[in-house]
Automatic annotation (TrEMBL):
Family membership noted in the UniProt record: Belongs to the universal ribosomal protein uL24 family.
Species in which this protein is naturally found: Cyanidium caldarium (Red alga)
GO biological process, one term: translation
Keywords: Ribonucleoprotein, Ribosomal protein
Physiological role: One of two assembly initiator proteins, it binds directly to the 5'-end of the 23S rRNA, where it nucleates assembly of the 50S subunit.
Any GO molecular function: structural constituent of ribosome
InterPro entries listed in its UniProt record: Rib_uL2_dom2, Ribosomal_uL24_CS, Ribosomal_uL24_euk/arc, Ribosomal_uL24_KOW, Translation_prot_SH3-like_sf
Gene3D superfamilies, sorted: 2.30.30.30
Protein name as catalogued: Large ribosomal subunit protein uL24c
TM spans (from-to): none
Signal peptide, first to last residue: none
Length: 142
């Protein structure tokens, strides 16, 4: 079902937008879900991945591996996780690129921007809870 007339539903236009997206849009597209504990704590379902985040690989051949994000490669839409590598023919290690959709963030690398975002989110959640309490009081009064 289409909700916005200004956004195309065409597969080829979506693919074109995806592969030609500028870096600031790719950052948003490279988001990963948070673990259940972080979701309950911060009231956020997913976040853009960042260097230093602890992640657990939940899909693919490296499923079950965990580590810190060492590099985010926006051009390739992949992240490199510490300890997730393979050996080349000459026995040198080669990093394996993992799609951010295949990982789950288990610990966040907190920065000032993220702290500010979560503080704003806390205020919004509190305001919604207060509004919900008022609605319940009005229903009880009827």
């Amino acid at each position: 079902m289409k909700f916005n007339k200004r956004v195309s539903s065409s597969r080829r236009k979506q693919r074109k937008a995806h592969f030609r997206a500028p870096g600031h849009e790719r950052r948003i597209r490279m988001a990963a879900p948070l673990s259940r504990e972080l979701r309950d704590k911060y009231h956020v379902r997913s976040m853009p991945v960042r260097i230093g985040d602890d992640v657990l690989i939940v899909r693919g051949s490296r499923k079950g591996s965990a580590g810190k994000i060492r590099q985010c490669h926006r051009r390739k839409y992949v992240v490199y996780v510490e300890g997730v590598a393979r050996d080349r023919a000459n026995k040198q290690p080669a990093d394996i690129g993992i799609s951010p959709s295949n990982v789950r963030i288990v610990a966040l690398n907190m920065t000032a921007d993220r702290e500010e975002f979560f503080e704003h989110k806390r205020r919004v959640v509190r305001a919604r809870q207060r509004a919900g309490d008022k609605d319940e009081e009005m229903v009880d009064a009827d």
